[in-house]
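Troubleshooting entry. The earlier prediction with zinc ion gave an output that would not parse, so I re-checked the input for stray whitespace and re-submitted. Clean input:
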Amino acid sequence: MARRKAKDQPRFNICEKCGKQFTPKLFGEGRRYCFECVPDGMADGSHTRQIIKKWALEYKGTKCSRCGYDKCIEALEFHHRDMTQKEFSISDRNIKLEWEPIRQELDKCDLLCCNCHREIHAAAKFKTLIEGENHA
Ligand SMILES: [Zn+2]
Ligand SMILES: [Zn+2]
Ligand SMILES: [Zn+2]
C-alpha cells in the first residue's frame, strides 16, 4: 500500500478548514478538506449544503445564542446582525464549499432558534415603526 510514486509530491493534503494533515484515498485526489470535515462520499457537490450546515453549527456552538435552545438543529437559523454586511446567506442553495468565506459570513451572524429569530425581526420591525423611517 505504501508504494511511493517517484516525485516529491507529498502523500498528504492539508485540510483547508481544520488545518489537519490527511491522506487522500486516491493518489493525487484533489481533496481540499479532511474526512472529518467532509465525510467520505460527500465531496461530490450534492451534499454541499448539508456539510455547510454541519460546519456552521459546529462553529456557532449548535444552540440558540439567545435562549440556549438546542433540541432540534432544523429549528436553528442564522441571523445577520447587520444586513448591510451580508454577502450571502448560509442556507443559499448556490453556496460554494469554501470554508474561509463561510467563516467570515458566520462571524456576522448569530445562531438563533426560529422563535428567537422571529422575535428579533419582529422587534426590529416594531422599532423601525416607532423610531421613524430613517432608522436602518
Ligand atoms: Zn478538516
Ligand atoms: Zn432561541
Ligand atoms: Zn434574521
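This one parsed fine. Residues 114-131 form the longest helix (18 residues).
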